[in-house]
Design brief:
seven-stranded mixed sheet; 2 domains; six-stranded mixed sheet; Rossmann fold; PnrA-like; alpha/beta; lipoprotein
């Protein structure tokens, strides 16, 4: 239970209307009002804050909770070459300090969270992109394959060379979901379109999610093979994919956040056709709110297309200029939410 009164919390929530989604600053934040009340803390995945994608979406959820509930928050960066023991120590430290909930951003936190959550039964824990069993753990998972299907539909409509690319950060089941949905969306839209796929590394420790240079090289190789649309699910490495696509004046498709709107990618935005979205921001905030309301979420919480937990952005005005793209995406979304289209996961 929070130390601040329910009355104070309601007043703060009613007065706070803006969503702060900046991805700049240090590794922790303070409400600055002298309260001892501690709320949401997040521990970042590989790539950390500033990836313009996965981690930054989680940070936006933290900032939203901080503004609405007026409490202290913390966000902690990962370290290079860290072990499960390092992650366990990080989560333990946050729980000991009294933060609640504590969220691990990324499937890599699975083993550490299982161990730490059992030791702190009065703290609610959350993990993004993995399922961890525990009475006080909320597993925040997404239907990435459904958003990727829509990205595949858009790619099939946008390609002129009948060749599109996919760059995955690490060869793991989570990223296979992105690839499977994308390829199915492409093929269902136009069976004649070829999909070239590549994974940057076999393990996260090799830098698949944190190496823009690897992403750039992979995209350049696919573009040389005539791919004129390249979709990336590669975290920070995806920035290199987008840069290579813009340099070659072909389309890139972003991931997790609306990368057309990311300030750090502004130089390349004209070539970001769309982005496959995951509402990590909303999921992180939802868990924080449930704890604040003293009704903490636990178990598997799935965010899919039907619940608007995933989707496809249309921020780039040029997307509307692709013949038939918007109608095809709308039809595909209707098919998925209505059940007539079953999207593969591998």
């Amino acid at each position: 239970m929070r130390r601040t009164s329910r009355l104070i919390r309601v007043a703060v929530g009613a007065a706070s209307l803006a969503l702060a989604a900046t991805a700049c600053g240090g590794t922790s934040s303070d409400s600055g009002d002298g309260k001892d009340d501690k709320g949401l803390a997040i521990a970042y995945d590989i790539g950390g804050k500033g990836d313009q994608s996965f981690n930054d979406a989680a940070y936006a959820g933290l900032e939203r909770a901080k503004k609405e509930f007026g409490y202290k928050t913390a966000d902690i960066e990962p370290t290079d070459g860290e072990t499960d023991a390092d992650k366990e120590q990080r989560l333990t430290s946050l729980a000991k300090q009294g933060y609640n909930p504590v969220i691990g951003v990324g499937f890599a936190y699975g083993p550490a969270m299982k161990a730490v959550a059992a030791k702190y039964p009065d703290t609610t824990f959350g993990i993004v992109d993995s399922v961890v069993e525990g009475k006080n753990v909320a597993s925040l998972v997404f239907a990435e394959n459904e958003a990727s299907y829509l990205a595949g539909v858009a790619a099939a409509k946008a390609t002129k060379t009948k060749t599109v690319g996919f760059v995955g950060g690490v060869d793991v089941p989570l990223i296979h979901k992105f690839e499977a949905g994308y390829e199915q969306g492409v093929k269902d839209t136009d069976p004649k379109v070829k999909v070239i796929s590549q994974y940057l590394t076999q393990t996260a420790e090799e830098g698949g999610f944190s190496s823009p240079d690897k992403g750039r090289a992979a995209a350049e190789g696919q573009i040389e093979k005539k791919a004129d649309v390249v979709y990336q699910a590669a975290g920070l490495s995806g920035q290199g994919v987008i840069e290579a696509a813009a340099k070659a004046k072909v389309w890139a498709i972003g991931v997790d956040s609306d990368q057309y709107e990311q300030e750090a990618l502004a130089a390349y935005k004209d070539y970001i056709l769309t982005s496959a979205l995951k509402d990590i921001n909303g999921a992180v905030y939802a868990l924080a709110k449930s704890v604040e309301d003293e009704k903490p979420l636990t178990g598997t919480q799935t965010f899919d297309l039907k619940s608007d937990g995933v989707g496809l952005s249309d921020s780039n005005p040029k997307f509307a200029g692709i013949p038939g793209a918007q109608d095809a995406v709308a039809k595909a979304k209707e098919g998925i939410t209505g059940g007539s289209i079953k999207v593969k996961t591998e």
